[in-house]
Design brief:
The longest helix is centred in the last third of the chain and has 22 residues. The two termini are about 35 Å apart. The chain has a single domain, classed as Arc Repressor Mutant, subunit A. Strand 1 and strand 2 form a beta hairpin. It is mainly alpha-helical.
Length: about 150
């Protein structure tokens, strides 16, 4: 049996969570990456902040072409509206259509339920330590990129 590294286990958990969440939100005809983009725009709008696709790419640690493609698909679906950016004519600010704004809390409830099930039997102190460890690991690995 092959030794499973920590990276393998983290990746396996992420893939399993993504598959379960995709299954939970398929009724909305959205994928997890599309929902993440919608949620980032939604959260920013709650704070009266308008974002560009580049802002979302930076926030999500994704490359810009990937986010641009997701945004284009969401625009075609009618969920995202591009508005002229007064600060930079080369980019557009992104807003959500009211119909998807009403759906996001329902999807977020599903995401929270998945997270609750995933963390069943784990004490809150253990989760706090786990998050701290993951953040430190991410910081350590990020230093290797620089």
């Amino acid at each position: 049996m092959m030794h499973k590294s920590l990276g393998f286990e983290i990746n396996r958990l992420a893939k399993t969570m993504k598959a379960v969440f995709n299954q939970q939100i398929e009724e909305y005809q959205l994928t997890v990456p599309q929902y993440i983009v919608l949620k980032i725009i939604y959260d920013a709008a709650q704070n009266d902040v308008a974002l560009t696709a580049a802002d979302i790419a930076d926030e999500n640690c994704s490359d810009r072409p990937t986010i641009t493609g997701i945004v284009q698909r969401l625009c075609k679906m009618g969920h995202v509206i591009k508005v002229s950016n007064p600060n930079d004519k080369r980019s557009s600010l992104l807003e959500l259509d009211e119909s998807i704004v009403k759906v996001i809390p329902k999807i977020e409830a599903k995401r929270m339920n998945i997270q609750q099930v995933m963390c069943k039997g784990i004490e809150s102190e253990e989760l706090t330590i786990f998050n701290e460890v993951l953040n430190q690991m991410n910081k350590n690995v990020t230093e290797l990129k620089e």
